[in-house]
Amino acid sequence: MHRSRAVGGLGGLVAVIGWVAAWLGLLFAAKAQAASPADEITARVAAVAKQLGQPALGPRTEVAAAAQEILSQTSDGTQPPFAVIQRELLRKQVVEPVHRQILAGFATADPGSLLEGLDPVLRQAFADRKWRWFGVATAPFRGDPERSRLLILLIESGLDLLPPPAAVGPESAPVPLKGSLLAPFDRPQVMITDPQDRITPLAIEVKGRAFSGLLRCDSVGLYKIEVIGESAQGPHVLANFFWPCGTTLPSLPQKFAMPIQKVERTIPASEAELLRLLNQDRKIAGLEPLTHDPRLAKIARAHSEEMAKKRSVFHHSPTTGTPEDRIRRARIKNSMLAENLAQAGSEEEAERSLMDSPGHRRNILDPQLTKVGIGVATAKTPHGSVQLYITQLFLTP
């Protein structure tokens, strides 16, 4: 019997996947200002968003608090690592995985001059997505108090969801999980990875776009909760966060603090590295490696090239249709099919984000799947950094 499964691409990337950093080298003469720099910048972000038809974009305390923590952990003049951003957003229970960062330097006494150069950067950041939340943080340079750093985090959201409270321990009563998807998303699903890395769907009641269920703590640790919704482009990860039971969020695994050393590779080398990382994760889980299938890789690479061209991640293509359509057109027989998508700055970042997503992890570690084709395409951001668009196509004959 044919069984198909596709999971929406990450961000925050991912994960992976969905951020662009801009470093603005703005140095200006000192001039006293009455309002705090963060307040002035927050007002400017909201004003530009309104001008560009994004009136729903608003400041959020948790995002600003995460941005402040990120600045405190980042060296002067360097871009915050994706893993650090992901960790701090999770600690503040910002559940949405897609974010973008804007970095700038400015004279501490003259934030007004910074504002003049910020508008075009904001316009560029707002051009390709509808953002919902943002947070602003500033901090003096450690070696030069006359200069300060700015970090703006933009968050995309496709749902309304308050993170559930932590459970005291396994003896605790079930904790309600409630949320509602926003248009154009519907058909909510919830996946859970427990502290023993077992992945299961959560039974939920669905009424239109609203959903509710009960979270049960069977063992102490961090449970990973993922909410998936569907649109015309296929399934999308709309929320990805930890739910603590008998522990706290600051005890997030050390891997979220580990920076990733980016290595630029050719497309074939990038695909080979992603296959190595995937099979390494399967080996750790006690599974047999997946066999590389050149036919699947050809289809996967073509899909990644389309995503890179359109600067977007999607399962359902207006040109080639669904993953099932692409496999059928190639006349490849299968009893089971699955697809993972990612956008990331490196192969390791992509695999880490995919493994940290219950739905994507389930595909990578599915013992029933035996073959895989991995396709990569690249695209440069407006600021010159390279983003990988990745398709993992899994199959059982």
Question: What's the short version?
Answer:
The chain has helices spanning 37-51, 61-72, 82-91, 111-126, 267-284, 294-310, 323-329, 347-355, 358-364, and strands at 3-7, 21-25, 58-59, 99-107, 133-141, 144-155, 159-161, 175-181, 186-193, 199-201, 204-207, 210-215, 221-231, 234-245, 291-292, 336-344, 371-380, 386-396. The protein is α+β, with helices and mostly antiparallel strands and 397 residues long.
Polypeptide structure, described:
The chain is of the alpha+beta class and 397 residues long. It contains nine helices and 18 strands. It has helices spanning 37-51, 61-72, 82-91, 111-126, 267-284, 294-310, 323-329, 347-355, 358-364, and strands at 3-7, 21-25, 58-59, 99-107, 133-141, 144-155, 159-161, 175-181, 186-193, 199-201, 204-207, 210-215, 221-231, 234-245, 291-292, 336-344, 371-380, 386-396. Strands 1-16-18-17-15 form a five-stranded mixed β-sheet. It is globular, with a radius of gyration of 21 Å. Residues 1-5, 8-34 and 254-258 have low confidence and may be disordered.
Q: Give the number of DSSP strands.
A: 18
Strand-residue proportion: 25-35%
Bulk shape: globular
Largest sheet: 5 strands, mixed
- The helical percent reads 25-40%
The low-pLDDT segments are 1-5, 8-34, 254-258
With helices defined by DSSP (H or I, 4 residues minimum), what is the helix count?
9
Intertermini distance? 11 Å
User: For the CA atoms, what is the radius of gyration?
Assistant: 21 Å
Q: Please, what is the average pLDDT?
A: 84
In which order are the strands of the major sheet placed?
1-16-18-17-15
